[in-house]
Structures
1.
Amino acid sequence: MNETSSSDGGAPPRRGGRPAEGQPVIDRAFALLSVFDSDHRALSLAELAQRSGIPRSSALRLARSLIHVGALERLDDGRFVVGLRLLETASLAPRGHGLRSVAMPFMEDLFHVTRQHVLLAVRDQQEALLVERLSALDASPVHYRIGGRLPLTSTGVGLVLLAFAPVAFQDHAIATYTPGQGHDGIRTPADLRRVLAEVRRGDHVFGRQSHPWQLSTVAAPVRNGDEVVAALSVVAPSTGFADAGYGPAVRATARAISRQLEVDGRRAMPAGGGCTHR
C-alpha cells in the first residue's frame, strides 16, 4: 500500500502567483505556515514568499506577526521555523491528541506483537492525515511522519476512511481516480468501487504493493459509536504477511479502541469529528 510512496505531506500547498485581492489576513497567515514541510523545516524570507506566493514585503509583515504570537520563531541565521505555540495549540485537537491518548495503549500492545509499522489516521478533506505511528528500528523502509498526509485511494488507512465516507464523496473519488503506486489490486475506478464495497462488508482491508518495496498492509476502522472516526493499520514486508496473524490483531485492536472511545462517553472525540467536509 502506498503508505510508503506518499511524500510526507501529500499534495503540496498551492505555490506561485499573488494572493487574491482582498484575501483575509488569516488566509495569508495559514498560506505562509503551510509552506513548511519535512523537507523544508527552516526557510528564508525569500523562500517563504516564493513558496507561498505572497509578496516579500507582505510575507515579512505576516512573519513578524506570527513570531509575536509564537506561531513562528526566527533562527540566528535569519531563517524562520514553526513555533512551539502551534504545537501547544495542536495538542488540544480532539481528532489528534484526544484520539491518540485513547488509542496509544492499544497501539503499543499491537506494536509489541507485530514489531512493524502501526499507523493511526483520520480523514481530512481529500486525504488521510497520520496522527500517530509506532515503528521498529528494523522495520521496512517507509516515508511518512506524524502529521503527514496519505492518499485515500491507495493506502490501507485511506481505503478504510474512504469506504465509510459519505456516498457522494466516495462517488467523486471513484470518478476521478487515476492509477498510481499503491494497492496492486486497484487499477481502474471499477476496481476501487469493488474494494470499497469489500471493506464495508469485511470491516477491514488487505493490500499489497510491489513498488517501491514489497510491502503489505491490513487496516480496520475505529469507531466512536456508529461513526468511523479513524483507521488503524499495520504495514509489514509482504513475505510471510499472510501467515503472521496481523489481520486478527489489527481488527481486535481497532475494536478495543472503539470500545474505549464509547466508554469515555465521546469525550475524546466529539460527535461528527470524522466527517468534517470543507
2.
Amino acid sequence: MEKLYTASVTAKGGRNGHIKSSDGMIEFEVRKPREMGGQGGATNPEQLFAAAWGPCYLGALGAIAEREGVDVSEATVEVHISFNKDGNAFALSADLDVHIPGVSTEEAQKLADKANHACPYSKATKGNIETRVTAI
C-alpha cells in the first residue's frame, strides 16, 4: 500500500478532553454527550466519526456514479453513528441515509450499495460494526 496522506490528531483527556490536528486546522474541546451522562456542550467522537465518514462516502459515490453516467452532484448522506450498550460492553452502529435527487429509489439504492463497498470508511468498518445504508 502506498500512503498518499496521513492525518495526525492528538487527543488529551478522553471523552472530556481536547483534540488538535498537527496542522492546526482542527482544535477544540470534546465532551461526553448528556445522553451518556456527560455535560455535553461540545462535539464528541461519534459526531467526528460521522463527519469524517460522510464526505468520504460521497466521494466514493461520485466516483461510481461518474463511471455509470449518473449525476450525483446534489446527493447528500446523513450519517448516524450510535453508541450502544452490548451486554457489559459497548459497540458502535451506523445508519447512512443517502439521497440522490433525480434517480429512482431503486437506482439510488444500487448506487448507495456500490459506494458502501468502495468507501474506505465503509471498508474499515465492514464486519466490525452494524451498518445500514438506505436510499431515501
3.
Amino acid sequence: MNCCTEARTRAEIQEFCDISSRDYFRKKILMPLLNSGRLKRTIPEKPNSSKQKYIKA
C-alpha cells in the first residue's frame, strides 16, 4: 500500500509487488483491495480504461 500514495497503474503496482502473473494480481490482490475500499480508481466511471490508475483511499 505504501507505493500507492501517488496514483499508479496496475503494471506499476504489480512490478512493485514483484508479481509476474497479471491474472493472479488482479484477482487475488487488486480486486480485494478495491472491494474493501483500501484502494480507489482515478477514473471510476471507466474501470477498464487503459489510462486507469489506482491510489490509496
